[in-house]
Amino acid sequence: MSANSVIKVGLLGAGTVGSEVARLIESDQSDLAARSGAAIEVVTIGVRDKGKDRPGVSRDLLTEDLDSVVTHPDVEIVIEVMGGIEPARSLIVKALNGKKSVVTANKALLAKHGAEIFAAAKANGVDLYYEAAVAGAIPIVRPLRESIVGDRVKRVMGIVNGTTNYILTKMDEENASYDSVLKEAQRLGYAESDPTADVEGHDAAAKIAILASLAFHTSVGIDDVFASGISHLTSRDIEIARAIDHVIKLLAIAEVTNKGAVSVRVHPTLIPRSHPLAAVRNAFNAVFVEAKSAGELMFYGRGAGGAPTASAVLGDLVAISRHISFGGLGGRESDYADLPIASIEEVATRYLIRLDVADRPGVLATVAQTFAKHAVSIQTVRQSGRGEDAELVIMTHSALDKDLASTVSELQSLDMVKRVESVLRVEGVDPSDSSSNSARK
Amino acid sequence: MSANSVIKVGLLGAGTVGSEVARLIESDQSDLAARSGAAIEVVTIGVRDKGKDRPGVSRDLLTEDLDSVVTHPDVEIVIEVMGGIEPARSLIVKALNGKKSVVTANKALLAKHGAEIFAAAKANGVDLYYEAAVAGAIPIVRPLRESIVGDRVKRVMGIVNGTTNYILTKMDEENASYDSVLKEAQRLGYAESDPTADVEGHDAAAKIAILASLAFHTSVGIDDVFASGISHLTSRDIEIARAIDHVIKLLAIAEVTNKGAVSVRVHPTLIPRSHPLAAVRNAFNAVFVEAKSAGELMFYGRGAGGAPTASAVLGDLVAISRHISFGGLGGRESDYADLPIASIEEVATRYLIRLDVADRPGVLATVAQTFAKHAVSIQTVRQSGRGEDAELVIMTHSALDKDLASTVSELQSLDMVKRVESVLRVEGVDPSDSSSNSARK
Hints:
2 copies of one chain form a homodimer.
Chain A: E1 6-12, H1 16-27, H2 29-36, E2 39-46, E3 62-63, H3 66-71, E4 75-80, H4 88-97, E5 101-104, H5 107-124, E6 128-129, H6 141-147, E7 153-159, H7 162-174, H8 178-188, H9 196-199, H10 202-216, E8 226-227, H11 235-243, E9 246-256, E10 262-272, E11 284-291, E12 295-302, H12 306-326, E13 348-358, H13 363-373, E14 378-386, E15 389-396, E16 399-400, H14 401-413, E17 417-426, H15 431-434
Parallel strand pairs in A: 1-2, 1-4, 2-3, 4-5, 5-6, 8-10, 10-17
Antiparallel strand pairs in A: 7-9, 7-11, 9-10, 11-12, 13-15, 13-16, 13-17, 14-15
C-alpha cells in the first residue's frame, strides 16, 4: 500500500445514480478498502439544489459550487454523474487538468467531446474511466478496451436502450400498439414524458459511437451515427416479423465494411428468433461482438437504473484507486487505425419491404422488375389478398441503402402501388447453428 | 513509450493454441504494437517434440529444453499453453521468480496450485494473467477481477464445458440417447476418446474453482468443488424436463450461502427454458453472474478452440505489454474475505425426483409421508400409469442435500418403490420476468 491510506473523492451530481454511489461507498467501505488498497471517502458532492431530499446522503457534503468539487485540493478522483454537456464538460476537463482522475457515466458528453476529454486525460497522465456510460452494469467498455484488444473486432451489435426494448417486447408479446405501450411505459416510469431521445435512437447512437471508437481504434462521434427510431413501427410490422420467425429490436450496429470503412447506425431491425439478441427482453440490454479470433461474444445485463449504474461506477473507482495505491494507469483509448466513416448509403443489409398494392394480375411482375432495375435481388415474396388490395411482403438479399432507396422511390411512383407500408432492415443468423464446429469445450 | 521498443516473449507449448498464438503475433504485429506501445516478438518456443509438423511456426524458434524458455535472459513475458500440472507448475514458478510476467491458459493448474502461483507473482511484482483458462474467448476473468470489483457478487452460474453442452443440446433437440450422442461427438472431435474429464464435470470443476476465488475473494481449489457429471442422464430425463418447460444443462455454480459460506458445485441441472442460459446451445459457453447492485449479468461466447483461446491469450499479452511499456501492474487476486467452504450436504436447491412405483392405491400417500418425514416439501407431483407400474415425478421446494439424500435412501427401502430413476437439481427463474422494474434503459 502507498502512502495514500485514504483516497478522497469528489462527486458531481446526487440524483438516482449519484446518491446510490455515495451510499455504497459508505456502506461497503471495508470491502472497497480491501480491494482498492486504500480507504475511499467522499469529501464533497456538487449539486444544483442543496435543498432537495436525498436519503442516505450527508447534507454536510453538499455544495452548489460545482467548481469547488473539481478544484478541491484533497480530491484525487472526481465522479461525474450529473449528465448533460455543460457544465459537465468544462468541469471534467478542469479536473483532468488538475491531475485528478475521472469516472463518468456521461454517454452524451463522451459521444460529442470524447476526443478532447481523452486527450486531456492522456496529457495529464491520469485515468478516465466510463464503464457506466454504455449499457449500465454490463462490463463492455473494459472488455473492448482490454480483453479483446489482441483480436480484430469485425462488428458490434447491441440492444443498448432499455426503454425501446421494453416497448418492443410488449408490442411483440402482447400484440399492443406502439402508442398504447408507450403510454403504459410512461405511466410506469420506463419512458420519459418526452421520450424522443430514447424512441428516436439518439441515446443508442451516443452509446454505439463510444463502442465503435473502442472497437475500431478510430474516433467516432455521435454525428457519425445514422439513427432511425421505433415510433413508426406498427402492430402489423411485428406480426409479419413473427410470421417469419423473427423479432424486431432497435439495434445499434458498428462494423467495418468490406471497403475498410466504419459504419455506425441505429435502426429497428428484424433478427431471427433463434439469435441470442432476440431473447433479450424488457428493459435488459445486451451487446453482441464478433471478432476474428474470438468469434461471437455476448454481454447481457441491466442497462440502467441507480444500482446497476452505481455498480459500474464503483468498479471504475476501485480500478483507479488501485492505480493510486500501487502505481500504474489503465488502458488508453487509441485512434491509431483512423478508419474512414462510411455513409449510410454505402451500407448493405437485407430488407423487408411491405407494400399495399392493387390486387390485379401483373402487379408482382412490375414490382419485381422495379427491384431488378435497381440491382436489388429478391429472396422471397409473400402475397396476401385483402379485398381490392393485396399486401406484398418482400425480403431482399443484401442490398446497398442507396439502391434500396431508389427502388422505394420508384415503387412509390407506380399507380398500382398504393402505399409503401414499411421498409425494415434484417440482420443476423444464429451463431450456434452456423459455426459450432470451431469451438469444442 | 518506454525504452523497451521490443518486448520478447517465450512460449511454452505449440499445440493448437500455441501455434495459433505464434501465428497471430506474427501476422498482427503492427496492430499489436500500436495497442501495446511496443513491438511484440516470440523469441523461443518450448515443445516436447521438435519433429512435429507445425504450419506457420518457425522451426528455428523451437527448443525441447523447456527450462531455457523461462530462464531466457531477454524474455519478459512467458506464455504457458502446454497444459498439465508438471512441468507447467515448476516452469511458471521459475519464470515468475525470474521476474517475468506470465500468461497461462492452464485451468487445471490454477485450480490446484493457484494460491502458490498467485503468491509468486505478487512476491516478484510481476503480472499473472489467465483469461484463457476459463471459458476460452469469453472475457470473464477480467470482468470479475476488475469490472464488478466494486460490487458484491452473490452467485456465478455457468455453462463452462462445451463438450457436455454439445451432448445435452443434441439429446434435447434430437431425442437421442447419451451413448449415441457421445459416440457421434467423439467421431466429430467434440469429445476426447476418454471423455471422463468433460462428462464427469472435472473440467468444469476446475473452471468454477477459479471463478469462485475471484468472485468471493476467497481461495477456492478444485478439491472444494462437488462435481457430478452427465453420463447417467437418460432420454426420459430430458423428456420430463421438456414437459415442464425446462432444459437440462451441466451447470457450474458458485454462491454464498445464507450462512456466509461459499458453495461450489457442478451438476446436471434443470433450468426454465426462458432462462438466458437455456438458450446457450451446442459447444457455446456462458457465465451468468448475480451481483448485489449490478443484478444479473451474462457473458456468452466460444469456450474453446485454437483461435478463441488465442484471442484471450493475446488480450492478456497486450495488457502486460502495456504495463511494461507504460508502467503499472494488473489487478491482483485477493483472498481477504477468506470465507469458509460449505459442504454439499448444507446446500439447498429444488429437486426433481423420478420414481418407478407399484401402481396401487396408497403409494402416493406413503411416498409423500417419506418426504415430509425428512423435512422435504413437495411442490408438484405428476403420476402416470404404465401397466403394473406407475411413474411418479416429484418437484420439491428448496431442500438441503442431506435431507434429500435421507429421503431418497428411505424411498429406496420401500417395497412399493421399484426404483429411484433419477434425482436432479433445479435452478433459476427468468430474470427478465421477475425484476425488470429496476432497470429502465
